[in-house]
Design goal:
- This protein is mainly beta and 174 residues long.
- It is 11% helix and 36% strand.
- The chain has one helix at 8-26; strands at 48-52, 58-59, 73-76, 81-85, 91-100, 106-114, 119-125, 139-141, 145-155, 165-171.
- The strands form 2 sheets. Strands 1, 2, 3, 4, 6, 7 and 9 form a 7-stranded antiparallel β-sheet that branches. A 3-stranded antiparallel β-sheet has the order 8-5-10, with no helix packed on it.
- Strand 6 and strand 7 (119-125) form a beta hairpin.
- The mean pLDDT is 90.
């Protein structure tokens, strides 16, 4: 290093950098990258889906609005959308409350899915302290049957503003 015309300080810095690079090389870890492939096939809708009563159009999601009043139970026996098993075979489903804004407004939520011959499930939620709630007991849909969604909401005496429920329906083997 003396032949390079470096000062004593520059030689020390170069020596430290060389030693640090050697230490880094000595402790380098070897690793292997493993790989797997996922093929995701797109279908328009699962075998059981929501549908709009007025048009018969299938939906994977929908929005619904209802007016509630403090200390009163509000019932809507047939909301704007229903449940439709449009693919051959029976399918097991579940429902749950994923989230709720302004929980202080709601005393309970009751949801029933039924048609003229069969009540598939009635689920009442009264505790929204831990969300999402657990899945409802399973219910089985029948091929080419449509089902009505019946909603009952009881508001607390201090209810004000708005609350938004996000509901989920799980379909096994869609």
């Amino acid at each position: 290093m003396r032949k390079l015309g470096l000062s004593k300080t520059a030689r020390r810095i170069a020596l430290v950098l060389i030693l640090l690079s050697l230490v880094g090389v000595a402790y380098a870890a070897a690793y292997t990258i493993l790989q797997y492939t996922i093929t995701a096939t797109v279908e328009a809708n699962p075998a059981v889906t929501f549908f709009q009563w007025s048009t018969g159009t299938k939906y994977n999601t929908f929005d619904y609005g209802i007016t509630i009043f403090p200390s009163l139970r509000t019932i809507d026996e047939n909301i704007t959308h229903g449940v439709w098993d449009w693919e051959s075979g029976t399918h097991t489903c579940y429902i749950r409350v994923e989230s709720l804004t302004n929980t202080a407004n709601i005393d309970y939520l009751n949801c029933t899915i039924y048609n003229s011959t069969t009540q598939l499930v009635t689920q009442k939620w009264t505790d929204f302290s831990t969300l999402p709630t657990s899945w409802s007991p399973s219910f089985t849909t029948m091929y080419n049957f449509t089902y009505t969604m019946w909603i009952e909401i009881n508001a607390t005496s201090s209810a004000s503003g708005s609350s938004v429920f996000t509901m989920n329906m799980e379909v096994e083997n869609p």
